[in-house]
Amino acid sequence: MTAPERLSWRDVRTEIHDSILSGQYGPGDRLPRDADIADALKCARSTVQRAMQDLADSGLIERRRKGGTRVRAHPVTRATLDIPITRREVEQKGGRYGYQLIRAAEETIPRVIRAAFELSEPRKMLHVESLHLSDGRPYILEDRWICLETSPEIRSVDLGRQSANEWLVLNKPYTRVDLRLSAVSADPAMADGLDTAVGTALFVIERTTWIDAAPITTVRSITAPGYQLITRNEA
Amino acid sequence: MTAPERLSWRDVRTEIHDSILSGQYGPGDRLPRDADIADALKCARSTVQRAMQDLADSGLIERRRKGGTRVRAHPVTRATLDIPITRREVEQKGGRYGYQLIRAAEETIPRVIRAAFELSEPRKMLHVESLHLSDGRPYILEDRWICLETSPEIRSVDLGRQSANEWLVLNKPYTRVDLRLSAVSADPAMADGLDTAVGTALFVIERTTWIDAAPITTVRSITAPGYQLITRNEA
DNA sequence: AAAGGTATTAAGTACGTACATATTTTGTCA
DNA sequence: TGACAAAATATGTACGTACTTAATACCTTT
């Protein structure tokens, strides 16, 4: 007589999430089968499936065929990182974007780059060094290698005008990306490029992308002092 | 006569993804409606919906009711970060885990902590400093504040034996987490705790969690020299 | 021409059924 | 007892229908 409403998958997710939060199910515990939950909540199994999928994506539970669903035994803090094109990042912060090409040349890739691409054979790639600026001040110093077999069109791009970062992100969608985040002490070259003192702690983002098995690019972005990478994740 | 097979949502996703990769649809372009794609591929609209949802989650497309689906005008590199419990992280790398409580005391939170929690009023919280070790060597130095209203049970935890990190992750699921990643130059206290030289570049992970609107904990993890945070993301 | 209300549209959700697939469990045979 | 095959089981996927919701487009009124 009150509310003949139907449960949405979000309601179901909240229901299950709460039963975990409340301690009813702890790490490693097995949850009832989807069908039984659907039964208990009086909704379709597909609705429970949708809710479970979401909880699995967020890293809270693990699901296995026949094995059932259980609360992750070793919980992780899962967060999603969005790294925009550098020009847009600067502009969204209200800065005036600037860009300088330092140098570009075809070279044989060094060992570390081979490792990043998981390549066994050495080969030549386009090596590009450039500087992104915000309000005229150094923002990110980037050292990039681009696979010419995968992106031959890059030869006809004027890298003095458009950054490789922007061209690649707009024109070369990838199927796999590896990120490595770390800190480094500014060496003389970095200090010079970023206009800071040698030894300053700098935040470094290394990113390697592939399209299927073919390497696209790998880039080491050395950020100016004070740079932060921020995430906000809501369940 | 050949293959009367049905398309899976992954097939559909690949189909749409490829049509974007090939340049048929560029940033900002509008894709056909789900129903038309379903029609063209001879599958159910729900299958297209599932594929589209996945592409939207991965940041490639944007969907709006009535507005339709379009390729993201400002593409981002999206990656998922998993941060395990520190003990597990060490053990999975094959190290022997160690842990030391440095100090724990109830204190009024300083301004930066209030800011992290988005609190307007000052209040008291449990302040815990501790050190995680790998094979006897300093691994992560953590400086943590725990909200006692949200987690009163923490008072009865022996923080000399079990780390707050482990207890909280196992016992206090959150509904929101903010991460801030950065680099810092070791000050004397950090250098002492991590057994390194003053000025060394260190990678810092700051994490704040809430359950609904209630603050749980905020932690500043200062990692030992050479620490890297790694991601691997497959489309 | 500006403002505001209404109709239309395309994605989002819910349901129930049927079948697929990956595991685990069980059963059989050597 | 051990190896291997067969049955059982819980999640995963596909389909089609009906309905909901948010946003845009259009049309009326001032």
Task: Show the helix and strand layout.
Two copies of one chain form a homodimer.
Chain A: H1 9-21, H2 34-41, H3 45-57, E1 61-64, E2 68-71, E3 76-84, H4 86-92, E4 97-108, H5 111-117, E5 124-134, E6 137-146, H6 164-171, E7 176-185, H7 188-194, E8 201-211, E9 214-223, E10 229-234
Chain A binds a DNA duplex (30 and 30 nucleotides) through helix 3.
Question: What does this 3D model show about the protein?
Answer:
The structure is a homodimer of 235-residue chains. The longest helix of chain A is centred in the N-terminal third of the chain and has 13 residues, at 9-21. In chain A, the strands form 2 sheets. Chain A has a 6-stranded antiparallel β-sheet with strand order 4-5-6-9-8-7. In chain A, strands 1-2 form a two-stranded antiparallel sheet. The two termini of chain A are 32 Å apart. Chain A has 7 helices and 10 strands. Chain A is an alpha+beta fold and 235 residues long. In chain A, α1 packs across α3 and α2 (34-41) crosses α3 (45-57). In chain A, β8 (201-211) and β9 (214-223) form a beta hairpin. Chain A is elongated. At the A-B interface, α1, β3, α6, β7 and β8 of A face α1, β4, α6, β8 and β9 of B. β7 of chain A pairs antiparallel with β11 of chain B, so a sheet runs across the interface. The first copy, chain A, binds a DNA duplex (30 and 30 nucleotides) through residues 6-9, 33-35, 43-47, 49-50, 52-53, 63-69.
